[in-house]
Specification:
With 846 residues, this protein is an alpha/beta fold. It has four domains: 339 residues, ANL, N-terminal domain (Rossmann fold); 83 residues, GMP Synthetase, Chain A, domain 3; 72 residues, Orthogonal Bundle (Non-ribosomal Peptide Synthetase Peptidyl Carrier Protein, Chain A); 256 residues, no CATH class. The chain contains 30 helices and 25 strands. The chain starts with a helix and ends with a helix.
């Protein structure tokens, strides 16, 4: 090598070294979390965990650098979907390293995401060099008004949190909150700043398998809003928190003092925090050793920040607006593109919260400036009213409405009205008490009053304009379910609908709407009415066709086949086993969508009660008067104590099979691990259960069942599970898989090709056509046959045997002639009882 060439190489090495130094400087200057420094110092340390994937700080640094190069370095705004996975984090950090300001979008709220993108469309913006992050203001996700946060804001906020929580590189956080929510994002930033690990997941805290994985990863902390901890308690997952847990934090709204004490006593360390998006998340924290004694306070300012009270006109002595100063206070708001180029125009944050400072220096929030209302000349603190109601055991939301107050109450409506009137001295006409089933919580876990305001507006509109289509649908739900308290924003499933009431509701809606869409039971009255034209009158023309749920038609056909086969009018068995399949499908539609394990079990129990009570009633009366059934059969124990040959005790095999099938299903889902698996693997779990029942069958009785084995619970549970599979067959591939499983499970089991064909045909029809066209004139009779199927099955055994000897068609008609009126009377009585309970509760509120 010549001297000249050697000098060229030295210059190249020097240039590469300069480029490397510039790249390193860029990594540091555009990296508020110090990722590049941590990656260089501890490259092998785990930064992120997603499922089975572990990403070290070195790997994360490389991924971020790769994403930054792909974006191209330079100023601008980059919209990033804040998904709780490695790609979401890399997109955020990569945009920062590329020199972009990040507009963080919600991952699980497409409508809100679209509103943000509509207000701030992708494009070229003149951006101030300090601008790092754009977030929707707290509680207004999707609003065009954005909070402008700097790199310094992000870093100082993370450092303050790491300081008072004493975070180290050994900590492991669980991402229990959305990353587009400033509180959830602060968990990520504070941990990455100290070289700790974050387990990324978007699973609900109500899934106990989440906490099993948390234990596997040695999670030391998680963050939540008050609602998070309510969910932990109601789901039973509070008992499954990992032993590795060092602390938990709560923010995002006031937690009741008793709840703070409870969790402070239950967890190694429980930290109450206070903040706003405008302060990059945190402004105050309550040292955990004070939680038990001072649970009503927000504590002291975070390191580097200060709080003071600004006097407020008309406020009580010692009460003022909380004003925060610190390095994490935002640059300002952005409502138009020109705002993105501005530097800092906010130096302190007027929180809008009213507070006091106690003698020991701790701050307490006692109200909110915007939560004051003028009612008949009186200045009313709505938060204080809610607190006083809560102290008296009434859970409510209080909103300013018209010329007075609206109190929306989940429980104790009468005490709420009396308490508010007594406390405030308001006349009765200035107060409106509205019973509601739920006090909504938003996606960020905070109170969400928007649906309640919409409800109040809807009530006003209804009073002014009368019924519209949504109201007629709501009235249908209310009538069929005996729920006069039904709201327009509730669905048939929300209101407790099940397979027993689904049929009548379908028929009534079929008369009301041109077409009833698939999945209507999960739509609220407002959602179902949206996009539809005005309700039309009942169909009378024989030329009109109605679009009907296939399961409704199959239920009607199945019960006709059952009774016709028993009366020897035809030989088409298989209807009862088809009804079992429909019961499994109903499980998916009405019971499994429930949000938590307890609610799932409650819904299954309600369906079980709706079948078992009529069954026990009919069999019990027969046992006492005619002696057809023994008391083991009445108790549903014929499978245990009955004969191994067909006797009269086997007549009610269907009722016994469906009841114990539901009990077995409920028992499985009550196991946290199984319930969690079912939510994560909605198709695989019932498929596994089918495989297990088939293996048990083949190992004990072989391929073909004898009589009465074909009616025995261990072997017919398979058909309920097949209906479960049908309900989970949401793609062509899954429908083909279910078809194959149905053929394997059914063909050869009965030793009767006709019966097997009926069952397989029913399953294939459900899979191929969720809805079918039916002559409109047959809609009513089909609905009655389907809805009354249980009572017809129960009573036809009491009716047809003696009549069959005279006339088989007459025996068929007599079976329905008794079963249908019994169903009508039972349903109306149950509906009236349910309605009377609701009316009674309303009367108490007056």
């Amino acid at each position: 090598m010549t001297l000249a060439s050697r000098g060229g190489l030295d210059r190249l090495d020097h240039r590469e070294a300069l480029d490397h130094r510039e790249a390193l400087d860029r990594r540091v200057s555009l990296d508020p979390l110090g990722l590049g420094v941590t990656a260089d110092a501890h490259p092998g340390r785990t930064a992120l965990v997603e499922g089975e994937r572990r990403v070290s700080y070195a790997e994360l640094d490389d991924l971020v650098e790769e994403r930054a190069r792909a974006l191209g370095h330079g100023p601008g705004v980059e919209a990033v979907v804040a998904s709780r996975d490695v790609d979401g984090v890399v997109s955020l950090l990569g945009a920062w390293r590329a020199g972009r300001a990040v507009l963080l979008l919600p991952a699980d709220a497409p409508a809100q995401r679209d509103r943000l993108l509509s207000a701030w469309p992708p494009g070229s913006y003149d951006v101030h060099p300090d601008l790092a992050l754009l977030l929707s203001t707290s509680g207004t996700t999707g609003s065009a008004k954005l909070v402008r946060l700097s790199h310094g804001n992000v870093r100082s906020n993370g450092e303050a949190i790491a300081d008072y929580l004493r975070l180290t590189a050994d900590d492991v956080a669980l991402s229990t909150l959305p990353l587009h929510y400033s509180y959830g994002l602060s968990v990520l930033t504070s941990h990455l700043l100290v070289g700790a690990s974050v387990v990324l997941t978007d699973e609900s805290v109500t899934r106990c398998c989440l906490w099993e994985r948390a234990a596997e990863h040695g999670v030391t902390s998680f963050a939540g809003v008050p609602h998070t901890f309510d969910l932990l308690t109601s789901s039973g997952c509070a008992d499954r928190l990992p032993a590795s847990l060092r602390y938990a934090t709560v923010a995002g709204g006031r937690m009741a003092p008793d709840d703070v004490r409870h969790w402070a006593g239950r967890l190694p360390s429980f930290v109450v925090m206070y903040g706003q998006t405008e302060a990059t998340a945190r402004m105050a924290w309550l040292p955990p050793h004070l939680a038990a004694d001072r649970p009503d306070t927000i504590g002291v300012p975070v390191p580097g920040g200060t709080l003071r009270l600004e006097p407020v006109e008309g406020a009580e002595d010692g009460v003022g607006e909380l004003v925060y100063e610190g390095p994490n206070v935002m640059l300002g708001y952005a409502t138009a593109p020109v705002d993105l180029a501005r530097g800092r125009d906010v130096h302190e944050l007027r929180t809008g919260d009213l507070g006091v400072q106690d003698e020991d220096g701790l701050f307490r929030v006692v109200g909110r400036l915007a939560r004051f209302a003028k009612v008949l000349g009186l200045r009313v603190d709505l938060d204080e009213v809610e607190r006083r109601l809560a102290d008296s055991g009434v859970e409510a939301r209080v909103l300013e409405h018209a010329d007075g107050l609206a109190v929306l109450v989940r429980s104790g409506a009468a005490p709420a009205r009396d308490r508010v009137l007594g406390e405030l001295g308001l006349p009765a006409h200035a107060l409106r008490v509205v019973p509601v089933d739920d006090l909504p919580i938003g996606a960020n876990g905070k109170r969400d009053d928007a649906p309640l305001r919409a409800l109040l507006a809807g009530l006003d509109d209804h009073e002014a304009t009368g019924e519209d289509l949504a109201e007629r649908i709501r009235s249908t739900y209310a009538l069929v379910l005996g729920r006069p308290d039904a709201r327009r924003d509730q669905s048939f499933v929300d209101l407790g609908g099940d397979s027993l009431s689904y049929v009548e509701a379908s028929v009534r809606l079929g008369r009301l709407l041109e077409d009833v869409p698939t999945g209507w039971a999960s739509l609220s009255a407002e959602e179902l009415a949206a996009g539809l034209e005005a309700a039309r009158p009942a169909r009378t023309s024989t030329e009109r066709w109605a679009l009907v749920d296939t399961s409704l038609v199959l239920r009607a056909v199945a019960i006709v086949l059952v009774v016709g086969s028993h009366t020897d009018l035809w030989a088409l068995p298989g209807g009862a086993h088809t009804l079992l399949v429909l019961a499994g499908l109903s499980l998916v539609r009405f019971q499994l969508p429930a949000p938590g394990t307890r609610e799932r079990l409650r819904r299954i129990g309600r369906t079980l009660r709706g079948i078992a009570v009529p069954g026990v009633l009919v069999m019990g009366v027969d046992a006492a008067t005619r002696g057809t059934y023994d008391w083991a059969t009445v108790a549903g124990l014929n499978n245990l104590f009955g004969a191994d040959r067909w006797t009269d005790q086997w007549r009610m095999w269907f009722v016994e099979a469906i009841c114990w099938g539901l009990v077995g299903t409920a028992a499985l889902l009550a196991v946290p691990a199984v319930g969690c698996l079912e939510r994560r693997h909605a198709y695989a779990v019932p498929l596994t259960l089918v495989a297990l029942t088939l293996a048990a069958r083949w190992s004990t009785i072989g391929w073909t069942a004898d009589n009465p084995q074909r009616y025995s619970i261990p072997y017919v549970w398979t058909f309920l599970l097949l209906g479960w599979l049908v309900g989970r067959s949401t793609t062509t591939r899954l429908r083909l898989a279910t078809t194959a499983v149905t053929l394997v499970a059914t063909v050869g089991f009965f030793g009767d090709h006709v019966r097997e064909g009926v069952v397989v045909g029913g399953v294939l029809l459900l899979l191929a056509a969720p809805q079918v066209r039916l002559p409109a004139r047959l809609l009513g009779v089909t609905g009655v046959l389907a809805a009354s199927s249980l009572w017809v099955y129960l009573l036809h055994w009491e009716v047809y045997p003696p009549i069959e000897e005279v006339s088989e068609p007459l025996a068929l008609l007599a079976s329905f002639g008794v079963g249908v009126p019994a169903w009508w009377a039972w349903t109306r009585a149950g509906r009236a009882w349910s309605a009377s309970r609701v009316v009674g509760r309303r009367a108490q509120s007056q």
